[in-house]
Amino acid sequence: MSSHREAPEISKDPVADSTDVYAFRSPANPGNVVLIANFIPLQKPDSGPNFFEFGDDVLYEIHVSNKGTAQADISYQFKFKTKVRNNRTFLYNTGPISDIDDETWNRPQSYSVKRVKGNDTTTLGSNLPCPPVNVGKRSTPDYAKLAGQAVHQLPRGRKVFAGQRADAFWVDLGSIFDLGALRPFNEAHLIPMGAMDGINSVQSFNVHTIAIEVPIDELTRDGSTPSDPMSATSTIGVWATASRRTSRVFNKKTGTYRDFGKWRQVSRLGNPLFNEVVVPMAEKDLWNSREPSGDSKYQKFVYKPELAGLLPVLYPGVFPNLAAYDKQRADLHAILLTGIPEGVVPGFQNYTGPVPSDMLRLNVAIPPSDDPNPLGLVGGDPAGFPNGRRLEDNVTTIEIRAVAGLTIPLVDPSFTPDDAAAAVEDGSEYTNSPLLGEFPYLGLPGGGYQTEPGTTQAS
């Protein structure tokens, strides 16, 4: 999936594991950009008595690069603090939580948000309460109200939210990692089965979301609000990280850990599925610890992606043109590592410079679409992925089709994509709570009481 369990070590540390990053112009406030980073993957709603929460020992950050160096020019830092109100009960809540500051919520969490630009650090908000998780109909009877109370207004028209939401990503994980199978194309697979619709593997799961909405002119290199998409100042790069202290000591007397030393990055995420399916297993943990500016080390895996070589093998006779293509994948290199330069797609560019780096690239001069196409740029909608990433963008299908060769003609007109390249997909669709039309846009999280555990089969 996008980045839910993408590397061996971070999969053992879900509190610091980033799952998805989104960056788009606000459809409700087009003069603003919304930056979203999700963490703590695959949360079953019915997970009491110790429900999910942000880590007090983790530094969460969303970074913006605007000078073409693939280094953070602006960072938004989030630090959390949790307390226990009643130390004589095992309960997460001792009665219905009707208000975000109710004493019945036994484990409230709050946070601070800071903006870092160069040597200047500005505190934008402190002691901002998170909402509780969605425990169920009795414990959190009006969850929409609680979530709404956790949307905080900050100076200059900024907004911020940190708390549990429904996972906005969708993918047929069970099929894709079963030898690269795509259920709608099961019959064409090397090991054929009957064709069927895809299954959303993250249905009913929640994540923890950090979302911040800021004015466009706060993110551009010259403090402007660009209107010309071809302007070099109109494109920004975005990624998220999580960091931990270098040392951790367990106190046997208190049964708690204490952290020491400098912050060290343990997780990062820019483009969806980059570390998941581009970076080899042996490199994944190292990739998570590095800065995007050092990604030249990994561009060989983009120029010659493993999945592009597997598709013709797994689907015999379906991708003959892709199998015969022996050039470097300059199309994927542009999409994932530099942004698309001017002259490739008429009237569009999101080029951030020659430094190869995994970042979401958003051209802030392109207005939100009145009729968003989930296939984004390849579907004729320049406001969608890979121009930033919206919640409704079907990034799995977009990236599968790109890897299958659909985007090669952008840089090599002599190549003719296989017919299947324009049709291939995993067949899944978004099935969690409806997305919202206003900040923070992600759907309300599934409730514990409301959850109906699914079934599994061994054969």
Overview of the molecule:
- The chain has 459 residues and is of the alpha+beta class.
- It has one domain.
- The chain has helices spanning 143-149, 173-176, 274-277, 284-289, 299-303, 306-314, 320-324, 330-338, 395-403; strands spanning 18-25, 32-43, 59-65, 74-82, 109-117, 120-129, 152-154, 158-166, 206-215, 235-251, 256-269, 360-363.
- Strands 3, 4, 5, 6, 10, 11 and 12 form a seven-stranded antiparallel β-sheet that branches.
- The longest helix is centred in the last third of the chain and has 9 residues, at 306-314.
Keywords:
459 residues, 12 strands, globular
Write the layout of secondary structure elements.
Elements: E1 18-25, E2 32-43, E3 59-65, E4 74-82, E5 109-117, E6 120-129, H1 143-149, E7 152-154, E8 158-166, H2 173-176, E9 206-215, E10 235-251, E11 256-269, H3 274-277, H4 284-289, H5 299-303, H6 306-314, H7 320-324, H8 330-338, E12 360-363, H9 395-403
Antiparallel strand pairs: 1-2, 2-9, 3-4, 3-10, 4-5, 5-6, 7-8, 8-9, 10-11, 10-12
Protein name: DUF4331 domain-containing protein
Region (Disordered): 426-459
Pfam families: DUF4331
